[in-house]
Each structure stands twice: as C-alpha cells, then as structure tokens.
Design a protein that fits this description.
mainly alpha; 1% strand; membrane; MetI-like fold; ABC_transporter_permease; transmembrane helix; 15 helices
C-alpha cells in the first residue's frame, strides 16, 4: 500500500534530476582553464619535443639533428645514473613523507585545543620558498661551521655532502621537512570529512583508537593517499633547486638527478637540444609512474557517491 508522501518524494527527485541536468555548466566554463593549459603546458611541451631533434646553443637558429640527441642519451652513463637517482630519491620521499603526513594529518584533525596553534607553527615551511629552505639547511649542515662540526660523535667527519649516502639522506630529509606539511594539510581535510557516525558505531562495538585508525581512518583516506602520492612522485622527479643549492650534483655526479642534469646540459653546456630530450624523458617517466600508481591502487575504478558539476 502506497502513501500519499511517496509520489511527492518521487516528484522531488525527478525535479532535482532535471534541474541538475539543466543547470550543468557548458564548455564555456572550462574554456579559460583549457586555454591556460594549452598555452602554458601543451604548447611549451610541443616546442621542447621539437627542440629535442635539433642542435641549438641558444643563439641563432636551431639545426635539425634527427635522432642524434636521443642516441647520445642512450649511451650517456651520467644520464642513466641520473634516472636511477631520481627514482630512488622520489621513492624514499614517498616512503618517508606518506606515513608522517597521515599521522600528523589525523592528529591535526582532532579536537582543536592547542592543536590549531601547533599545526600553524608546523605549516611554516609551506610559506618559505625551496631556495630559502635549501640555503637554511646548507648553512645548518655546513661541515665547518654547522651542527655536524659540533656533533662529530653523531655525524662522523661532519661532511654530510661529501658522501653519496649521506648526501642523498640530506636531500630526502630537506624535502620531507618542506613538503610534509603540505600533504599533512591534505590528510587533515580528508580526515575531517570522514563521517563521525563510523567512529561512534566502532566505539559501540568496543573498537579502540588503534583499531579505528586501521579499520576506518586508513580505508577512508585511500583516495587521498593516492592523490598525495602522485603529487609526491611528480614533485620528486622534478626537484631541481634543492639539489642545485645543497649538493650541486656532488660529490662528483653522485646526486646528479635528471632535472639537475637537464639544467647542466642546457644552461651550462649550452646544449638545448640534449636538455630538451632529457626533459621529455622526465615527462614520460613521471606519467608512467603516475599511471602505474593509479592502476595498482585501483584508483581508476573508484567512483564518487556525489557527481561533480
């Protein structure tokens, strides 16, 4: 037996659906962003692709060189090493920053009290440029006048930039110090969006905080985690200023990542064709890794319960 309220509910749903269809924005809403993307992303990428097949020192007109730049990259041991170093530093950054960001984000999403003040202090690195942060840590870790020179019992000879392992460790640490607050902010917002009723039901069932964290919080943060990791991958593969200021690719070429090697080829050796080829390789690798993360995580199969505009 149907009630008189049921037709009204059905009518309201029909009106909402038809209203949503009518109110959906057209392409004109996306036109400014599309134009911006074409001008500042697609067009420069096409120009870089064209330059990768030329010889150009920055003066005069580029000369067509065919596949010479690409053949040189295949036999360039510094380039091969730089790719492995880029991937290594990126993976280490993800491994270090992800658990820290999740724990700090979940903590910061709790009852305010003093957490708001502490969170504001912790987010200060977000206000500083990568250049300023690199100069700061370069001074703090200076082997002659910095902290390592006063604590050799902990840092050995104090020259953290003189050995590959410690130099890579410094790059990972400085990157985490700068960017963990950003990802913490993402996790903080995502955690606050988790329905409180889930935790209330868990408490009724006798689940403690640790069980709630692993059974409710982490699963609910899955999509946020994938987004954060993709941002870390792209940021890690394109890191440049930190390496330029802290290690300058040294000792030797032990921390010469692909982005820094691209800079050396283009702006120090004036080989803009070779530098453009390296840039394209970085774009391809970042895209492949991001797609792998999306595929392995099942992110591409996830669906939202509320459709966007």
């Amino acid at each position: 037996m149907t009630t008189s309220a049921e037709p009204r509910v059905a009518r309201r749903r029909s009106i909402r659906r038809s209203g949503a269809a009518v109110a959906r924005p057209g392409f004109a809403w996306a036109a400014p962003a599309t134009l911006f993307f074409l001008l500042f992303a697609v067009v420069p990428l096409v120009l870089v692709a064209v330059l990768s097949f030329t010889n150009w020192d920055g003066l005069g007109s580029p000369q067509y060189a065919g596949l010479d730049n690409w053949k040189a990259l295949i036999h360039d041991h510094v380039m091969i090493q730089s790719l492995w170093l880029s991937v290594l530093i990126t993976v280490l950054g993800v491994v270090v920053q992800t658990p820290l960001s999740i724990l700090l984000g979940v903590w910061a999403a709790g009852k305010p009290r003093n957490r708001a003040i502490l969170s504001a202090i912790y987010f200060i690195p977000l206000l500083l440029s990568a250049t300023a942060i690199s100069i700061l840590w370069r001074a703090l870790l200076d082997p002659n006048f910095g902290v390592p020179s006063q604590a050799k019992w902990l840092f050995g000879d104090g020259n953290l930039f003189g050995h590959q392992t410690s130099a890579i460790g410094v790059l990972v640490f400085v990157g985490a110090w700068q960017y963990t607050p950003f990802h913490t902010l993402i996790y903080q917002g995502a955690t606050r969006a988790i329905p409180p009723v889930l935790y209330q039901a868990a408490e009724i069932d006798g689940a403690g905080r640790i069980r709630q964290f692993f059974s409710i919080t982490l699963p609910q943060l899955r999509t946020t985690m994938i987004t954060s990791m993709i941002l870390m991958v792209v940021g890690g593969l394109t890191t440049f200023d930190t390496v330029l200021i802290l290690t300058q690719g040294g000792p030797g070429t032990d921390t010469t990542i692909s982005a820094y090697y691209m800079y050396q080829q283009a702006f120090k050796s004036f080989d803009f064709g070779g530098g453009s080829a390296i840039a394209l390789v970085l774009v391809v690798i970042a895209t492949i890794i991001s797609l792998i993360v999306v595929k392995v995580s099942g992110y591409d199969k996830m669906r939202s319960s509320t459709e966007g505009l």
